[in-house]
Amino acid sequence: MSSILYEIKTSKKRKTVAIKIQKNQVTVYAPTYVSKHYLDELVQSKSTWISEQLHKQQALIKPSIFTRQNMCLFGQEYPIRFSLSKQSRCFLLFNTIEVETAARVKTIEPFRIKQIQRFLAEQLQLYLAQRLAFYCQQMNLDYQGLKIQHYRRRWGSCSSKGVISFNLLLAQTPHWVIDYVIVHELAHLKHLNHSALFWQLVDTHYPDRKKAENWLKNRMFDLEVE
Fold first, then answer.
1. 1: pLDDT confidence band, cut at 50, 70 and 90?
2. Other CB atoms within 10 A of residue 186 CB
């Protein structure tokens, strides 16, 4: 009998047996005629490989924000300290991110996620306002609106109406990386595409874009706020 717990999913159409491991769950896909005893022996024979895959997946799982001891703000790591208080607030004090939650809050963890998201959004908003004003003057461009949202697959966007959106996760990246995204999105005010003229405009105002692009590509999945 296999010591590894697994789920069986059978199908009349399936002709082969397959073992898949996702989210730390082992699933065996098999034709309906295959016996449980055969599957147990198969899983047992693959136990070393299965254990290795489970270990790799476990290593890739990001810890919950409530088990982390620190968080990045503009590329710098700060310790996080959670506490209960009379009122809820999140702020930076003496190089520590303080997350105070009112004792009356019933669902503490989801509420704390919102607290941290608001804190990051506020910090990012302040920086964006300053740097957008600078680059708008440099590029002789102007935008019509600003939004901060939590995207999973993009860092920013620019609508045809001139509204620019930025990913909340940028609050965790260094200032020079945010500057690249700002220039990128402002350039879309003039070129709503990624044409040669678009990249020429970006490179004129941000010559080190490849460095910033590589940072974002390599670190995107290290950043999270929930």
1. very low
2. 24
Alpha-carbon Rg of the chain, whole angstroms? 24
- Which is more confident, 152 or 88? 88
Residue type, 33: Y
pLDDT in tens, 51-92: 888 877 766 655 566 666 888 999 999 999 999 988 999 999
Question: Which among 123, 121, 161 is positioned nearest to 142, based on CA atoms?
Answer: 161
CB atoms within 10 A of CB 44: 13
Q: Which residues contact 80 (CB under 8 A, 6 or more apart)?
A: 65, 68, 69, 70, 71, 96, 97, 99
> Which domains does the chain carry?
7-60 (no CATH), 70-222 (3.30.2010.10)
Give the pLDDT confidence of 165-182 residue by residue, as tens digits: 999 999 999 999 999 999
Convert 76-131 into a string of H (helix), E (strand) and C (coil): EEEEEEEEEECCCEEEEECCEEEEEEECCCCCHHHHHHHHHHHHHHHHHHHHHHHH
Give the pTM.
Answer: 0.70
Helix/strand/coil for 163: strand
Judge whether 73 and 120 are in contact, CB under 8 Å: yes
